[in-house]
Amino acid sequence: MYDNILNKPLQLKPNITNSARHLLEGLLQKDRTKRLGAKDDFMEIKNHVFFSVINWDDLINKKITPPFNPNVSGPSDLRHFDPEFTEEPVPNSIGRSPDSILLTASVKEAAEAFLGFSYAPPVDSFL
What ranges does the record give for the region Disordered, renumbered to this chain (predicted)? Predict the structure, then answer.
C-alpha cells in the first residue's frame, strides 16, 4: 500500500465534485513543493473553492454547529470508530514501556554520553 501511495496516480471516484477533486489532488500531490498549501500555507487551503461556503470568522468563534457531535462517555469510548481499526494490534514500536524493551549496549552508551549536560535522559528513559 505504501508503494502505491508513493508511485501510483491518485484514483478518485468519478462522482466526486470538481471542487472536491481539485482539493484532494492538491492536498495529495506527491511533489510537496506543488502541494496545496506549499506556497501560502493555510491561506491557500482556506481560499480554495471547496471551502467557499465556510464563514471562517464564525467557525473560529465557534458559532457554527458541527454537522456531527458524537456523544462519548470518556476518552476511551471508541464506539464511533470502525472496529476494523480499533481492533488492530498495536505495533511494537508504539506504546512501549521501559519494561518491554531490551536496550542494547550502544543505545545505553549513547544515552550516557550526554550525562553532565543541562539535559540528560532519565535512567528509565526509552533511550
Answer: 71-93
Among residues 86, 90, 16, which one has the least CA distance to residue 28?
16
> Which residues, 6 or more positions from 11, have their beta carbon under 8 angstroms from its beta carbon?
none
Q: Is 4 within 8 Å of 28 (Cβ atoms)?
A: no
CB 126 within 8 A of CB 98: yes
DSSP symbols for 21-32: HHHHHHHT-SST
Q: What is the pLDDT along the chain (127 residues), one digit of tens a residue?
A: 778 888 899 999 999 999 999 999 999 999 999 999 999 999 999 999 999 999 999 999 999 999 889 999 998 899 999 999 888 887 776 555 555 455 555 666 676 776 766 665 666 655 4
Instruction: Report the alpha-carbon distance of residue 71 to residue 90 in Å, rounded.
Output: 26
